[in-house]
Every structure is written in C-alpha cells, then in structure tokens.
Amino acid sequence: MTRTVVVAGVGPGLGASIVRKFAAEGCDVGLFARSAKFVEDLADELDEAPGDALAVPTDVTDPEAVAAGFETVREAFGPVDVLVNHASGGAWKGLRDLSTEEFDEALAVGARGGFLCSQEAVEDMLDNDGGTVIFTGATSSVRGNDGALAFSAGKFAVRGMAESMARDLGPEGIHVAHVVIDGGIRPPGREVGSPEEYLDPDAIAESYWHLVEQDRSAWTLELDLRPHTEGF
After folding, report:
1. What is the end-to-end Cα distance of the chain in Å, rounded?
2. Which pTM does this prediction carry?
3. Residue 215: how many CB atoms within 10 A of its CB?
4. CB of 130 within 8 A of CB of 175?
5. How many helices (H) and strands (E) does the chain have?
6. What pLDDT, on the 0 to 100 scale, is given for residue 47?
7. What is the rounded CA–CA span in Å between residue 81 and residue 7?
8. CB 186, CB 14: distance < 8 Å
9. Are 60 and 32 in contact (CB under 8 A)?
10. Fewer C-beta within 10 Å: the chain N or C terminus?
11. Taking a C-beta distance cutoff of 8 angstroms, is the pair 200, 157 a contact?
C-alpha cells in the first residue's frame, strides 16, 4: 500500500532518517522545512528509493504557507495518510535570560506548527478511513529541563495536544502517537566519544514506521525511547 506522508520539520538528523525510512517503505513523502536547499538535496538523494520524495520549503508557523505546502503534496501524491510533526525549537535559556520573542518562537514552531499541520492532514484522513499523526517529543515533554524554559514549554504543549487529539480522533480511525526521545540523538556526520550513550536516528525511524503499521486493536499512545545506557 502506497501512503502519502508529510514530515514537517526535516533536518539532517532524525528528520532525514524518518524521511529515508518512509521512502524506503514505498511511501511518497513531502519534506517540509524552512531551508529549501537541505530538503531539495535530500529529495534528490532519494531518487532511487521505492517511494518518491518532494521538497516543499514551508514555514510551519504560517497558516497560508502550511495550506499551500499541503496542497503541493496533494497535487503530487494525493491525500495525506501520515503526518509526522517533527518541527521544534527553543532557546536554551532560563526565565531571566529568555526574551519574549524566543519564548513565542518556541511555541510557534512546535505547538502552533503542529496544530496547523494536523488540521490540514486530518481532513484528508477523515475522508479516507483513517491515518496516522506522530508527534516528536523529548525528555522535556515530561520533565521541565533546567535552563530550557521555552523548549520545555513547547514540548509540554505538544504532548498535551497529542493526547487530546488521540482521544478525539481515535474513534474516527486516526492513530495519534507521541514519541518521547529520552536521550541525545547521535549527530550526523561526526564522531562522538561514547556512541552507545546516544540514540541512533535510523533506529528511531524504525519505531516511527512501526507506529504507522500498528493494528487498530493495539495502538500506542506514547512511545518512550532511550539508549540502553540512559539512567531514568
């Protein structure tokens, strides 16, 4: 079965791994990011994949840009079956050092962006007997991080949105899942001192695909991923 997927917030780490995994599984994938060059290069890289990839430079905080991005994907691939809300941001500062603009930006990218993209995708899913919406969370989704007020606030908001949507949309056949990434993700393109202490982004992407493939009788609401060395 060919699925149409939007990954909102594609960068060189986990976002790229998710795109590669879904394209390898035969999905047609729209790549949303503010930066055109990276997603265009990634789409070109996937020319030989079973699924197609389309770069769609999009500011997920802008309602008109999001609507236009989804329409571009629909025209190329058809209605959206899967949405991965992966965009996030936030200055790593505490209350006294954080500006209003930095706080607003964190909420705009994560919570507002997730809201806007979900509204667009869910309309397609309701017309097509269901679909999947995945939100990327973090340790800061469940435990406020010292010196990361804006990032933590944004991630808490996204988790609440995912839980609310799951209860609302599950009976309509739409699987909404929140993934807590509880640990550092191995950075692409550089060596790290203790790789076993990091999550492998390709391994995380396998878990995202598992969420899409789950039977309706046993859906996951929240998936918590961490490396085996992580203390918790």
Report:
1. 39
2. 0.95
3. 7
4. yes
5. 7, 7
6. 92
7. 11
8. no
9. yes
10. N
11. no
How far is CA 85 from its chain centroid?
3
Beta bridge partners, 33, equal 57
Which residues in the chain land under pLDDT 70?
A: 232
- Residue 49: name the closest of 70, 35, 68, 31 by CA: 31
SS (H, E, C) 188-200: CCCCCCCHHHCEC
Q: What pLDDT, on a 0 to 100 scale, did the predictor assign at position 224?
A: 96
**What is the model's pLDDT at position 1?**
73
**If you search the block for the tokens 């995708």, which residue do you land on?**
121
Tokens of 141: 């989704």
φ, ψ (nearest 5 deg) of residue 13: -100, -115
What is the rounded distance in angstroms from the CA atom of residue 122 to the CA atom of residue 83? 9
Joined together, the tokens standing for residue 225 give: 């991923």
Closest CA to 137 of 162, 113, 118: 162
Q: Are 200 and 184 in contact (CB under 8 A)?
A: no
Cβ proximity of 178 and 207 under 8 Å: no
